[in-house]
Amino acid sequence: MSSHPTPKPIKNRIGTTLRAFLESEAAGGLILMAVAALAIFTANSALAPVYFSALHLYVGPLSVQHWINDALMALFFLMVGLEIKREMLQGQLSTWGRRILPGVAAAGGMLVPALIYTFFNHADTQAIRGWAIPSATDIAFALGVISLLGSRVPTSLKVFLAALAIIDDLGAVLIIALFYTAGLSLIDRAGAAVVVLLLIGLNRRRVHSLTPYLLLGAVLWVLLFRSGVHATIAGVLLALTIPARSTSEPQEATPSVSPLTRLERNLHKPVAFLIVPLFGFANAGVSFAGVTPSVLTEPLTLGVAAGLVFGKLIGVFGAVFLLVKTGLTELPANASWSQTLGVSLLCGIGFTMSLFIGLLAFDDPALQDRVKFGILAGSLIAGFSGYMVLHLVKGGKTHAAKSGH
User: Fold this and answer.
1) Which one-letter DSSP state was computed for residue 394?
2) How far apart are CA 355 and CA 352, in angstroms?
3) I need a labelling partner for 119 at 20 to 30 A (CA). Which of 186, 221, 278, 356 fits?
4) pLDDT at 292 over 90
5) Count of C-beta atoms within a 10 Å radius of residue 248
6) What distance in Å separates the CA atoms of residue 188 and residue 229, rounded to the nearest whole number?
7) 24-73+96-172+269-287+296-403 has CATH 3.30.450.20 classification
8) How does DSSP classify residue 163?
9) What's the predicted TM-score (pTM) here?
């Protein structure tokens, strides 16, 4: 027998990383559900004045809510960027064959909800700014619901949902960068461009210490915050420059961990269990005082809710149906059409990113509350419907039959 330890295959390492990702996101989603419920309860209890006053309390140049939404959420977007880069280079999105199904499904799942929202709000020049609100999927919430179903949902569908949501996040980031910017400062934008070039230079020179990247990332955040581009985009730009290769050769028995992997591992728990729940608690709290049932039938609220429930279902499931029926790809392994329908419904859970876009789209607290009503109603309906479909149906043999196994 050889005395040298056998290196763990690359595919096994990727699989382990993916399982850890799914598990952490699912657990984080369950916590996020509890935190959202707590925020709503607090906003409608005797503690409501304290809750809202604390969020608007200024600490230095920003309020507590802005520190959470602009600063801490930059770390969430850094995490999103790292996940996108890793999956594109060596994970579930590393080849065009793997990208086509979740990619086209994500595109359909962003386009159709935006069209439905626009249908309800095209006549309102102010409300139309929120067209992108129902386009986002909350992967933590969706995987949290799936985790409650255990083995009823095949792993292939969980991977499909994770890949779709990652592409969806990339689309949301691009939408924020292109459509939700404030007053422009060319000087600060130029400074930000210089910082990005410096980060790329560090990557090209194979600098593997995370310290210079993080220091320049902090400078980039300040410049983007001042420039008019939303500061959280700094997290994504920083992530794309973090080296994804280790300093060791792949064939070595104990290869070193790449800077991207190290940073991703260090961020996973703080983001999933602290930053995202804190964001949810700070932004999900909506007061029902003085609210009448008619609010739920207003175009803004309806557009968000219908976009999440029907838009995601039609966009995601419709894209998958067209791709499979035209022979361009197949359903995820061991998944049935009914299960795919259930997962498509779960894509309508749009909590975190939808809230984030809603806050960027509207400054008026009354409009923000209607956005929150729509997000909560749509996400609850989509989540419950998706859960029930997946709970009631059995796994299918569609993929195996089609493949001739």
Assistant:
1) -
2) 5
3) 356
4) no
5) 13
6) 10
7) no
8) H
9) 0.77
